[in-house]
Specification:
about 70 residues; 4 helices; mainly alpha
Length: about 70
Amino acid sequence: MKSNQSKNKEKLFDALSEHEKMKLEIAEELGLLDKVQQGGWKSLSAKETGRIGGLMTKRKRQINAQTENLG
């Protein structure tokens, strides 16, 4: 059974925009989520921020390409 804290985190995550969700998912994949949770986005270096932004752009292009292929 999930704790109340993890349920609250899920509710907060669900309330985020798709853009913010993607950003958090990529930060987690890169091992930066703990750093973001502790110090906020401003705690990341320019290199880390750029990496997240680059991966977000890549994913958005993939999503757009898939959508165009379906339509």
